[in-house]
User: Fold this.
Amino acid sequence: MTKIITPLFLLFMLCCLRVQASYSGSFTVYGDLDKFYPVLFEDKSWDSHRATELEIGRSNVHENSDWRGSVIAKFNYHTTRWGNGSNFIDADIRQFSPYSGPMIAGWTDATSGNSLRNIIIWLKGGGTTYNFTTEVQLTPLVFDNVSNSLPYQEPGGPAHTYKTTPDAYVNSSGVNSTGGAYFAGGSPNYFNGNVGIGTVDTYGNKLAVNGTVRAKEVKVEAGPWPDYVFTPAYRLSTLTEIKTFIDQNGHLPEMPSAAQVAKEGLALGEMNKKLLQKVEELTLYLIEKDKQINTLIKQMKIQNHKINNLKKQ
Assistant:
């Protein structure tokens, strides 16, 4: 039985082929193993009004040499081409190289002053082979003084040469987004690792902020609360002892020095406890001084009464 292929069926098949089509290849970055060299990738989907999707991969950590490194990275990008806007470069990277360091050191849009379509990705050299897959056919251009000479002069822009260390924004184990994140849902958002805002170094803290923080209220769990100052067993230092300590150390007892705060910062909960402790101690000092003052006032009244009687006599 002869099958009749309709134009509609052909259109459907062409659409399916277009969705499933992909192009793959490999390239090698030469130069030195301790340097990252610029590799140009074209934004071939620009005229199709789509972002270009690029995958760069090395599954075998021992390819080229023992423990050279592995990387699975996805780049989704759209170039500005001389100011058209809507440009971004988003990356999702997982890279592992315990001895020779990361495989990817950074990326940039190389079209701010020209009408080309190139982005630059800096990749580890030393004869390292990379595989790539895209939905559109493109040819990587490597600038390592072997395949092409350094530096790469961006038309209308700066000259680009190798890097020796990865840029600070490179996340070797997750997502790098050009834009911001907005979550409209009301459910809790969970972060298992440490979070840095304005800084990539959290110094081991769950949250590190390089800048100011504004909030309507901050709750800090701190205990035990220093009401023990008011118990009979609490020993209150004498003012003479406190003066001696201040003369020797330049700060109050049990309080951090200026040098310590500059180096380590302040633990907000612990500092509030210490401040309240000092306020409570100060209150006890004031109560004691108030007793002494009242005793002196009574004594003065008695003495004044005696003096007045003597004057009358």
Remarks:
- The helical segments are 7-20, 239-249, 258-264, 268-312.
- Residues 73 and 257 are 47 Å apart (CA to CA).
